[in-house]
Structure formats: structure tokens, C-alpha cells
Amino acid sequence: MQKDLNFSKILINWYLKYKRDLPWRHTTDPYFIWLSEIMLQQTQVAQGLPYYLKFTETYPTVFHLAKASQEEVLKNWQGLGYYSRARNLHETAKYVANERDGKFPEDYKGLLRLKGVGDYTASAIASICYNEPVAVVDGNVYRVLSRYFGIETPINSTKGIKEFKAMAELLLDENQPALFNQAIMEFGARHCKPKNPFCDTCPFSDSCKALQDDNVLSLPVKLKKTTIKKRYLNYIVLLSDNENTQIKQRVGKGIWQGLYEFPCIETKKDISETEFLSLFKASDISNDINENYNVSLFNDASIVHKLSHQHLYTKFWIVRVSTLNDGIPTHQLKDYPVPVLIARFLEDFSF
């Protein structure tokens, strides 16, 4: 395959005409570009934009972000999902602020050493901030290239990752790497969409292999996902007469590390109230309750919360007691970073 300069020209012309006016496109400051790129990993612009605006207002420099507590950062990130991004964001901010005097590495290889920064993010920052000719490859780029060239190599295979990266590097306009990279991502996000792409008005309609072969919606090819694991969570919402409750912070390397949740009993299947009462009485949670208590189920049907590799079937059991020795006022729950699953319950229960 030879370098296709016409592809770059057509793409950039489209971008200059149709690009969205987004705040991070008005700067080449690596802090703001890094922040936007981390937030937009696995997140659409419409969802990520309010968080970007909130973070840049709350943490106008990397030093402000570094000084914040992880708990505060997680609280501000709440609802954006994939919380490891927030933890890595905070760790990198502390490293850049404290070890590098607030200065980000100025090339692709240096950026790649930062925690939470992979090939795509390093390429984006290096090209946009330092004009380094390195190509970005994200989901949008995979889709554009696989359709344009009619490539059926799975994008999440080792071969595919190498093949598409090499192809993107070959197509890259080395004189305008920032413009090219932003153009191809924007084109994939807004024009060559996963569903209902605008093929009728596509500037590449005369040369797109997938369109010629009537194969647009079959590309890109992706290997089947890992089997989805089902988990059954029974949250115990303790409520005292003086409106106290109990929450705890998740530790370890599992989901929602660093976030807070109610005490929980995990089971292998959906359980009845009788089964719950039996498990609750045998648990450590009930040891601190030396009195009668009343149990009710908040949601009759399990709330299904879908994560990338697991589906959580969740029930919230309300356990009312007279007093709680070790608890917090329910009105303080809003101050703690919690998973969106818990946040929605707090809103629905109207504490």
C-alpha cells in the first residue's frame, strides 16, 4: 500500500468544514489535552464534556489536581464509569506535579510511560501538543480504515492492532499530524458512524471498498467478547431511627476500587426474602444489631447493572433498626464517591 495523499486532503477538508467546536480544540496545553483524552476513552463527547468542564474549573492546573484527595477526584468523576481512569489520572497528576515540576513529557515515548496512558493517548497528545507525526488509532479510526479499505482483520486481534496502526501511520499527513488525527477521529464519530453512517454524502463514496461491496455495516470485524459473568449483589441499607446508616469503602483491585457502597452479601443466584434473612442473620453485619429489626425489599425485581465483562443483578434490602453505633448521617451520603448503581438508588430512595 502506497501513501495516499488524496485521502489526507479530502479528510482534512471535511474536518475544517464540519468539526465541532469543543473546548480542548482551542488549546495545545498538554494538561488539557491529556485530561480530555483520558475522559473520552470509552466515553462519548456528549457525556464527557460536562465532566471536562467541571474538572478544568475545579482543577485549572495539574498542581490543583495533584493536591486533591483521591476521594474528591472519584466524587467528581462519579457517573463517568471505568474508575481506574480516574485513579490513574490522579496518580499521573501527582507524578507530573511533584516529580516533573508540572511539565508533561514532550514526546510519544515519554508520554507512554505515564500511568494510564497507552498508544492512542500518547499519540494524541504528542501530535496535538508537540506536532509529532504519530498516528492515533481508536474505535473511530478502526471503523474508517476497515471500511475504506475493506479490511476484515479483527481489530482486537494482535495482527489487527499492528495492521491498522501501520496503515494509520502510512496515511498520516506528517506536516499536519494534529489536524489529520483529529480529522479522522471526528469523521469516524460523526460521519462514518457505527450505525446509519452517512454514505450518501460521504466524500470517500467513490473509493470506499465497503460501500462498493455493500459491506459497510459488517465492518470493522471484532472478535467475540469475553463471556459475560453474572453476579448477584444484595445490598443491606441499614437505617436507624435517628437517620444514620453504614457504608464502607471498596478496597483491592476489583470493580469500583476506592468507591463507597452499602454492606453487601453476594450470592450465586437471585434469592428470596427468607433466604436473605437466613444469610443476614449468619453474617458479621448483623452482629452489631442487638435488637429487633424490620426488613423490606426496595426493588421487587433485580436491578441489572451492566459492566463491560459482568452483569450485576442487584437488590437493596432496607433494614430498619432503632440505633446504629457505627454509622453516618444519611444526609452525608451525597459527599461520598459511589458507583452510579448506588447513586441511582440514593436518588430513587430520596434520602
TrEMBL record:
Q: What does this gene product do?
A: Adenine glycosylase active on G-A mispairs. MutY also corrects error-prone DNA synthesis past GO lesions which are due to the oxidatively damaged form of guanine: 7,8-dihydro-8-oxoguanine (8-oxo-dGTP).
Domain HhH-GPD, first and last residues per copy: 39-190
Q: Name one Pfam family in it.
A: HhH-GPD
Q: What is this protein called?
A: Adenine DNA glycosylase
Record keywords: Ribosomal protein included? no
- Entry note: cofactor: Binds 1 [4Fe-4S] cluster.
Q: What's the EC number here?
A: 3.2.2.31
Q: Which domain of life is it from?
A: Bacteria
Give the UniProt family note.
Belongs to the Nth/MutY family.
GO BP annotation list: base-excision repair; mismatch repair
